[in-house]
Write a structure and sequence with these properties.
Blueprint (H helix, E strand, L loop, with lengths): L1 E3 L2 E5 L2 H5 L7 E7 L2 E9 L5 E5 L1 H6 L10 E5 L10 H8 L5 H6 L2 H12 L4 H16 L19 E2 L2 E2 L4
Helix pairs in contact: 3-6, 5-6
C-alpha cells in the first residue's frame, strides 16, 4: 500500500493484473485483510492495475501507511453502480428525456462515462465533457468517446495516462 498525495492505493502484483479479464477497468469481488467488498479495479497504463483505498475502507480495516495487505480478487461480470459526479448527475436530472437511455446502457458503460468526465482537472474541459455527454446521449451514443481504456485517467494520480511512480 502506498500514498500518492492524500490518496491511498494498492498496486496489484503483475500476476494479479494478468489474471483479470481486461487491461482496462475490471469489476471484482475483493477480500482485503478479511474484509469483503465489490469494486472496480483501475488500470495503471502499464498493463497493470491498482485499487483505490477510500477513507471508509481505510477506517474499517484500521490501516496504517506502509502496512502489508492480504488481497484476494475474483473477477465478476456484475459491475457495481458507479458514483456519478455531482455535475453529471445534475445534468442527467435536468434531462429527464435521457432517463430511459441512461438506465438502458450497461453499468460498465456508465463507468466509462464517469471515467471520461473525471479525467481532467480543468473546470472548462470538465463542463464541456458534461455538456457533450448529454448531447451524445441524446444522439443515441452509448459510450463517451474513443479514449484508451487501459490508461490511468485519474488526474490526481496519473501523468500521460500512466499511474505515477512515487519512488
Amino acid at each position: 500500500m502506498e500514498r500518492i498525495g492524500d490518496r491511498a492505493i494498492l498496486r496489484l502484483p503483475i500476476e494479479a493484473s494478468a489474471a483479470l479479464p481486461s487491461r482496462g477497468q475490471a469489476a471484482v469481488r475483493a477480500r482485503l485483510n478479511g474484509h469483503d467488498f465489490e469494486t472496480v479495479i483501475e488500470p495503471d497504463g502499464r498493463r497493470g492495475h491498482w485499487l483505490a483505498i477510500d477513507d471508509g475502507l481505510w477506517e474499517a480495516l484500521a490501516l496504517s501507511d506502509g502496512q502489508r495487505l492480504a488481497l484476494e480478487l475474483e473477477p465478476t461480470k456484475d459491475w457495481p453502480e458507479p458514483d456519478l459526479p455531482t455535475d453529471f448527475q445534475t445534468a442527467l436530472a435536468d434531462a429527464p428525456d435521457l432517463s430511459e437511455t441512461w438506465q438502458s446502457i450497461t453499468t460498465m458503460a456508465r463507468w466509462e462515462w464517469v471515467r471520461w468526465i473525471n479525467a481532467t482537472k480543468n473546470p472548462q474541459t470538465r463542463q464541456r465533457r458534461v455538456d457533450v455527454g448529454i448531447s451524445k446521449l441524446r444522439s443515441g451514443k452509448r459510450r463517451p468517446c474513443c479514449f484508451d481504456l487501459a490508461s490511468c485517467t485519474d488526474p490526481d494520480l496519473s501523468k500521460s495516462g500512466k499511474l505515477v511512480d512515487i519512488g
